[in-house]
Amino acid sequence: MMLLRAYLRGLREGRFILGYTLLLSLTLFILAPFMMIVLRSVGKGWFGRLWLPPQLTLDWYRWAVEVGNIPEVMKNTLIIGAIAVILSTVIGIFAGWAFGRRRLPGKEVLMAVILLPRMIPPITYALGVAKIFYTLELVDTHLGVALAHVSVCAPYAILVLSATFEGLDERVLEAAGVCGANVLKRFVYVVLPLIMPGILASMLFSFTHSYNEFTLTLLTYGPHTVTLPVRTYLAVGDGYWEITSAMAVIMVVPSLLILAIIQRRAKPEKLVGGFKGV
Amino acid sequence: MIAPRHAHRSTLTTVVLLLPALIGFLGLFCYPMLLTVVLSFRPEGQTVGWTLENYTRFLADPDGRWVILLTFILSLGSTALSVLLSVPLALILREKVSGHRFYRLMVIVPLVIPGLIGALGLLLFWGPRGWFNLFLLQFVPFVQRPVAVNYTIHGLIMFYVWLYFPYTCVTTMSALESLDRSIEEAGAVAGATRWQVLRYIVLPLITPGILAGSVLTFMAAFGAFSVPLIAGGNYRPLAVEIYKQISIPIPAHWSAASAIAMIMGVLQVGFLALYMRFVRRGGITGGAQ
After folding, report:
1. How many structural domains are present in chain B?
2. Do B276 and A47 touch (CB under 8 A)?
3. Of A120, A141, B93, B121, which is most buried, counting CB atoms within 10 Å of its CB?
């Protein structure tokens, strides 16, 4: 037995070296592109076979802000994101309550139907959305682009919130009722604190999806509603890698903030859609 | 017994609660889908008449068939690689190795980063002047010129893996975490080696989780748009082909684009249905507890 244990330990240590190699290469694989972007955005005269840029500069950021019109673009992105988050959270709270707390005939089927926009490539319905928005003159309006984003964000909101509401313990509400709290008080002091994390998580995920959404934005944007992903795409087309990199760095900061919050507060499974076992 | 009146009111409330979702669903998904279906059967640029020409033109064209094949090569290739990467990774991260929180964070980074940014960084890193080629040129003998990674099929598959493997990895990790350790211990006590425990106990039990995650990776890769748009070069999968139809010609080829979109949707849903059947069957034989 002792021998076996020693043997297993040896095997495990051998595996550790292998494991750490894998983990380190993963880290490099994931992070190296970002290092390249950051370096490219502050580098000057970086040509040929050089590992690092010879001179540092902030010119590209100035260019990105002045020529790329980043403040305006950021404003658009945030407005559109806010509208999309509000709309999908409202949809999510109502539908989530129905899914999580009420008897619903054919609940699974209905849920599958609601999640259908996630099963079908966005570009297939983005075409129709664009066509409709052109006739309704919603193209190139903040509301229009945000509405297009709702079709992606709302399924997430419904999924997260129905799970939250389902987890709400009936007995806690009853206890509050027994203690003499009326409906309003029960909602404000008992229900709200319990569901707030879920609502915040849903808002966070909705915002991330709106912020990153490219397909639907590209088909519904106009000169007044350029968002950050579209701006970056246009910059890539222009071919100025340094300025594009500077824009990318500006754009990635909110994503990293969100990442930090998610890592602390929420389970990453929710981010991939919460499908557990098909 | 529920009072009928009360039951009626309760149903009404449920319907009212579902109303915003239904309006959104019908207006932002069903109606656009319907419009795409109708457009795909209209002659190009007209609002009346029915035709199958948009479909036959794309499917009869060797280029069109290549686009479909390419989409499958890219999505299936990246799904397979994601599984190969995720399983060992999840197994390692399950042991709480030092810094495992950091590595977990690394796994979800591509999920929150806009795909375009990821693609841009990957293009820079693997490009002829990127660190990858610098490393090859300086430290690996017999490499005289930069190795082409960008704008090739294998490069594109690797970019897809970077972007979409987290779906598989996160799902695999959560499947592993919910696994009861005592089952493995029982296996070890019964005399199974670590490898046998892994092969005959752990892997079959987490297979449903792996497959569920790989479905997500496949769907993301099949519908990938932003990445092949900027990093695909001459390789244009279905989503990019659709966008080209409405962005390059003037006036835009809406009907042709809609037809390709329909083909794409049918292919994805059909493939998913097949996959799910396969998974269910594999899940029952492989995942029996």
Report:
1. 1
2. no
3. B121
Please write the tens of the pLDDT for every residue from A32-54: 999 999 998 888 877 767 788 88
Chain segment A166-208, per-residue pLDDT in tens: 888 778 878 888 888 787 888 788 888 888 888 988 898 899 8
User: Which residue in the block uniquely carries the two structure tokens 């109708």?
Assistant: B38
What is the residue-wise DSSP string for B17-64? HHHHHHHHHIIIIIHHHHHHHHHHTSPTT-SS---SHHHHHHHHSHHH
Are the Cβ atoms of B170 and A47 closer than 8 angstroms?
no
What's the CATH number where B283 sits?
A: 1.10.3720.10
Strand partners, B188: none
The whole model's pTM is what?
0.86
Contact assignment for B24 to A51 by CB distance below 8 Å: no
Q: State the count of interchain CB pairs (< 8 A) between A and B.
A: 280
Residue B10 banded pLDDT, cuts 50, 70, 90: confident
Architecture of domain A64-270: Orthogonal Bundle (1.10)
* Within a domain: B48: no
| B104 occurs within a structural domain | yes
Which run of H or E residues covers position A43? strand A43-44
